[in-house]
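seq as requested:
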Amino acid sequence: MNGLLIAMILALLIPMYEAWRDGDIWQKMLAFASIATKTSVMILVVSVQRDDLMLGTVGVIILSVGNAGLMLLAHVLKRLGQYD
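struct tokens:
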């Protein structure tokens, strides 16, 4: 199971590199949304390993609500771009 977590951490580095490399704001936002989703799935895997219900609950909340703020920011940036 530790190999699975190492593979997930390596998969997490791909969007981090993309966010660092690309200057486009939309690509950065997509990369950060991917990071949030991968992190919450990692939390769920660890909670199943440890048999910890509270940690699993936090992972589900992050997975379901975590990207809502990012989508709101994307909408605000889109609106600002329409008027400039």
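The chain has one domain: 2-83.
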